[in-house]
Amino acid sequence: MKILVMGPPGAGKGSQSAKIVKSYNIPSISTGQMFREAYKNNESMGIEAMEYIKNGNLVSDQITNKIVKHRLHRYDTERSFLLDGYPRTVRQAVALDEMLENMGTKLDAVINILSSNDVLFERMENRRVCKKCGATYHLIFKKPSISGVCDLCSGELYQREDDTLESVKRRLEIYETKTKPLLDYYEKKGILYNINGMQPFDNVYADIELVLREL
Ligand SMILES: [Zn+2]
Q1: Residue 54: which H helix or E strand, with range?
Q2: Ligand 1 centre from 144 Cα, in Å?
Q3: Which of 81, 104, 167, 185 is most buried as measured by Cβ atoms within 10 A of its Cβ?
Q4: Per-residue confidence (pLDDT) for residue 190, from 0 to 100
Q5: Residue ranges covered by each domain of the chain
């Protein structure tokens, strides 16, 4: 099962991906998380990437492709993986297809979570992320048991620096212009599955499972 989860920023990609990864026990490849880790470890690639992210911009194709390629070549991705947050441009998608082809494999499905801009703004304002394990919460719909503390690892919850209003607007704009064309790209390949993201978390997940079961 080699899949990609897409959707505008704030559509719930992260939490849905986390649940898929846990239920199916497959490795997750999240470029955002890899960049944040590299940044924490003071690696130059992480520092460079965080400059783009902080301003709500896409990290350059070159850096992004490099970090993904490196990750894909680890042994655990042979049978299955879930890509979260990559590719974000058609150029990255083409690069990914090339990487996979060279590895003798391909993507099985692209799960696209649909949502409206109003819902997205509201969600991102209320989103909190665990500093330690990366788990995501929503202050209304997916509240942690203890305020500010992660249920899973007791880590501290924080608001991501790219979840500010200005940055969110910018990310939505970029999504419209750069990421949306990807949907056509995958539709033409016949592997695009649209999921209604404007329903409760569990219902969205149930819809995703229907797709995954057919793979
Ligand atoms: Zn945690």
Answers
A1: helix 44-54
A2: 10
A3: 81
A4: 96
A5: 2-115+180-213
Euclidean distance between CA atoms 139 and 154, whole angstroms: 16
Query: CA 16, CA 111: separation in Å to the nearest integer?
Result: 10
Q: How far apart are CA 50 and CA 43, in angstroms?
A: 11
Q: pLDDT over 70 for what percent of the chain?
A: 100
Q: Report cis status (omega within 30 of 0) of the bond before 87.
A: yes
Please name the CATH architecture into which domain 2-115+180-213 falls. 3-Layer(aba) Sandwich (3.40)
Reported pTM = 0.79
CA dist 120 and 105 (Å) reads 34
Q: Is the pLDDT of residue 162 over 80?
A: no
Cα 45 to ligand 1 centroid, rounded to whole Å: 24
Distance (angstroms) between ligand 1 centre and the Cα of 63 equals 27
Give the Å distance between the CA of 98 and the centre of ligand 1.
Answer: 35
Mean pLDDT of 174-178: 86
Residues recognised as catalytic:
13, 88, 127, 160, 171
With CA atoms as reference, report the closest residue to 152 among 135, 172, 139: 135
In this predicted structure, the answer to whether residue 215 has a pLDDT above a threshold of 80 is: yes
